[in-house]
What does this fold into?
Amino acid sequence: MIQEPAASEPNVTPDVTPDAETSDFEFEPEATRRDADVSESSRANRGWWDRNADEYQVEHGTFLGDDRFVWGPEGLDEVEAELLGPPEELKGKDVLEIGAGAAQCSRWLAAQGARPVALDISHRQLQHALRIGGGFPLVCADAGALPFADASFDLACSAYGALPFVADPRLVLRELHRVLRPGGRFVFSVTHPIRWAFPDEPGPEGLSVAASYFDRTPYVEQDEQGRAVYVEHHRTIGDRVRDIATSGFRLVDLVEPEWPAWNTSEWGGWSPLRGNLIPGSAIFVCERD
It folds into this structure.
């Protein structure tokens, strides 16, 4: 089984078989908007990703590849973006990826000569990382309580991992500030905040504003007893900037990838139709002074 590391054991490789069984719900979760605190969000999303990791990797694995670093559904690749820096400068760098999933980004980093550590809250996602392989540490832990010593990493990254799913992103940002060395860079991508004002639909029905951009009430899917089984949290652009600043980082760039002509795929509410009209992702480039 995947073991959660103690604070003194940062490099824990899961000892698991890649074909472990996962269980499905026998009910259709109810979608609602309500409050969900730190612990409820963490518990719900750990369970959701464990249950849905197989389907996620089947549906999106080809697009993501085994060893590509893709920042979001638009397909922006780190090879061209160089948001962590030129690839040739990554060699020998200690890099933490949070919300790593099957660790595709970490695998690409390792190929550049970096020393990545892939962290995810989901055991099952890390089983897929183990199945693909890579030879770098896989750590199962909550991003709000990182099991690493201070100043352990030169860089940190997260492609749609952790930040959209936590009730208080400042907990994660402060932990990342702690484990990064002075001058370290943290780059993360999330759903573009403006998307919360639109229905999550890839077609024309997803082009009309249907909710307040300023309504920060979390999106929650809950079971028959009202227990959250999936939680996603909304932060405005201003919220994200303030979270970054108050956590000790300096925002050096904000990237809003345009939808490229080559990408004809749909991913949930992301699509060429919507991508050519409104931003779908926001990528924040932060540095630790």
